[in-house]
Amino acid sequence: MLAGAGSAAEAAGYVMEMHSVDGNIQDRSERILELAGSRQYEGILSFAPTLPTLEQNAPRDVSIVTSVNFDDDMHTAGELADATPVEAFIEHLAALGHTRFLHVAGPPHFASAQRRNQVYAATIERLGLVSLGIVGYDWTGEAGVESIRALPDGTPPLAVIAANDLVAVGVMRGAAERGWSVPGDISVTGWDNYDVSPFLFPSLTTVDNDRAEAGRRAMLRLIAALRDEPPPDGLAPLNQIIWRESTAAPST
User: Fold this and answer.
1) Which residues of the chain have pLDDT under 50?
2) How far is residue 86's CA from residue 173's CA, in Å, rounded to a whole number?
3) Phi/psi class of residue 203: alpha, beta or left (left: φ > 0; alpha: ψ in -120 to 50)?
4) pTM of the prediction?
5) How far is CA 48 from the centre of its chain?
């Protein structure tokens, strides 16, 4: 995100300096006000949440923009937590002939995991499909393995929506342990597009979340504020599905 923000600033003729601020939202907001009051900066972009009163307490000639892509624990939020790809996964797999699904979810205190759970349940219900549950609630490969080990014999064909690529790898290992093929018996999707995901066998269908673009867009909002211009709109989603070999029509 910093790289994306820096490239946008440079392209617009600005120099970007980076500051790391420890502490809570109060500490962070106070430090931003201190930086704004130093008169060294035309604008300040924060990638972490700030107090709602920050802008009204800042000097009027210093623009301050807070990115909405992280919460106070630095978990993804905003556009980066968009769960629309889960709906697209299920719709596509249902069109291929899958009727039964399992969601191996992330921890519930993450906004991104909560949203994917909600979209998964709503899409399954809307399409009249069968859900074998929402399980796991972790970002680990162990969660993926255990979710498959816990399924009854004769479960396939099945489509598994995994919380991230590591969980998906666990799902694939669990399937191999039981003699189930991917994607013949089980189609698997991940999230985050890890570097290794294109080179797995089969390669993993996943979601690429473009954090560099998120940083660029945040900086463009700050530049628009500096120039008293409207912020950019009509932009493509930050989360994009990459279809690969781990998803296919069920073989039985």
Assistant:
1) none
2) 22
3) beta
4) 0.88
5) 16
